[in-house]
Model the fold of this input.
Amino acid sequence: MRLKVNYDIAFTHILTRKKQTLVAAMGVTVGIALYIFSNSIVSGVSSYTKLNMFKTIPHIRIHKEDEISKSLIATDSTTFNLISNPKITTTSKTIINPYGLIDQLKKQPYVLNAAPQVNVDLFYSSGKSQLKGMASGIDVQAADAMFNITSTMLAGNLENLSSDLNGIVIGRGIAEKLNLRMGDNLSIISSLGVSKVLKVIGVFATDNRATDDSKSYIHLATAQQLIGGNPTSVTDIYVKLSNPDSSGVYAPRLQQLTQYKVEDWQIENADQLAQSKLTGTMTPLISFSIMLVASFGIYNIINMTITQKMNDIAILKANGFKGKDIIKIFLTEAFIMGAFGTLLGVSIGAILVYIAKGIYVGPPVGYFPVRFDASIFISGIFFGLFVSLGAGYFPARKAAKIDPVDIFRK
Amino acid sequence: MKKEVILATKGLSKYFLEPVKFKVLDDVSFEVMKGEFLTIVGKSGSGKSTLLYCLSTMDTDYEGELLISNQRITGQKADTLASIRNEKIGFVFQFHYLLPEFSCLKNVMIPALKLGEHSYEEIEEKAYEKLNILGLADQALKDASKLSGGQQQRVAIARALINEPDIIMGDEPTGNLDSKNTAIVFDIFQQIAQDYGQTIIAVTHDNDFAKASHRTIEMADGKIISHQKIFE
Ligand SMILES: Nc1ncnc2c1ncn2[C@@H]1O[C@H](COP(=O)(O)OP(=O)(O)O)[C@@H](O)[C@H]1O
Ligand SMILES: [Mg+2]
Done:
């Protein structure tokens, strides 16, 4: 099959000006490589941040909210104002029938898992030193499935906690501050005044300083004793969603299942998310600027070609080529340059991402947080081609409007 | 055999507004017969080229009417005019306007490839044939930019002939040529008109060239001042 004459002309122009073509394509190459690399970093950092967050916080937390005591006597505008003393009620913070709710939660198609927890505010004390913190009584398997605690373990085995009522797995900060080692005893006193002596059977580090300095894991039953509850007492239910980014949609639906407070991680961590949202809006802007600069090469070369080929365009139009044929010729040239540049840019971008992935930046981050994301590559390809065609279109349209008579008169 | 009209103008007038408004064509009306070899002469600036560009369908900014093969050209859309030029009109200018990156053969083929009525191979064969008529068969595969001026002009004529147009228009087609090449081009034009029944409308200021044509129109100040008819 022979090329249609418009494409034949476009290819001949390209082949007879290889150097300019290459220069124009290089602009796109650099632009696309930068686009892919920078977006991969943003995507990597954002997913690293989220992943880090989800080491300690659940997608959805269900708990009993603090209630403020109400005045026992009804007041309205017709009666006297009563002096009352509203404060937090000291009624139990446990959830009634938690396992019924957990079963119901697990039936929701967008819920991956739901796990009970008993959170206890307490003091750790070793000798004369004391440290404030919180112990989470966990169902080991369910909690590990949710937070992948095992991956954060520095010493010991989380598994042992499931059969050890006197064991405790502590954050690295606690171990350092209280100078604790594996097998050491640690006294804890809950806010209700219940105290226990537990044995350190594990140390973890989430790289979240505040967590590592205060948090520990204990057996569910031990925690229930510390809050003076019974074997079905649960203070919190943690829910893992199939798509945590849509928590804003699911949280209200879950709220309809229970009268307890349903907390969405995105609302609880709005501060931190605002930051990544800001980078999220900056990246397309930066990408767009990069591409604008990159497409300038193509714009220039096509423009130059057209200026140099006024005579050719005039005779083609005299011989019956239409305006749209002329546009097709130069758009084809822009497309070839753009496609070549994009292909090369995607390859270089991929290599950069691959190299960056292998760079160890040290703890707590580990390897450089850059992510291979197919959607970035696909959008990069579309972006490159689109911008190239755009850069070609404006000069091409100008060429289509050339009046051959003006040229022949000269 | 009765001669048929291939091209006609009725009251063609045109103004240029820059630098000052003036009437470059003033009520030009004439007819051209099929198979006629018509030359247009006149002093420099008398409006010959301007008239030819109006006839060529490339300049549409005029008053009056233009008909080609009894079809009204005036007021047609740009794309329609492009198709009409592709199919029915061949052009030869003072400068050859060959595409420098293409071979002579490809240059000749391009209008036919655009027309798309024949296969690539058929077009190639026809382009060879046209180049052969112009004595350039041996130059066919050379780049157009490698030929001498006279040869380039002959390639341009081959290109004008490739779609076997009804009309071939030339604006001083021999203006850049020496006497030997002028004679060659002239012979070809005469041969085309006689042998193939194609019409030639050529602007020239070469008197010998004009004298040998079938008819000469003389222009002055945008008006036709004489029809010297030989061809009837
Ligand atoms: N684009 C233009 N704008 C204004 N005046 C023009 C333009 N083109 C030609 N002219 C003027 O129109 C007149 C006729 O020009 P032209 O048709 O080229 O004459 P010829 O071909 O007979 O020498 C001349 O006076 C020329 O200066
Ligand atoms: Mg002239």
In short: The interface with chain A takes residues 49, 53, 56, 58-59, 78-79, 82-87, 91, 93, 95, 97-102, 110-111, 113-115, 120, 159, 171 of chain B (CB under 8 Å). The beta strands of chain B are 5-16, 22-33, 37-42, 63-68, 71-72, 89-92, 167-171, 199-203, 215-220, 223-229. The pocket of magnesium ion (ligand 2) is lined by residues B 48-49 (CB under 6 Å).
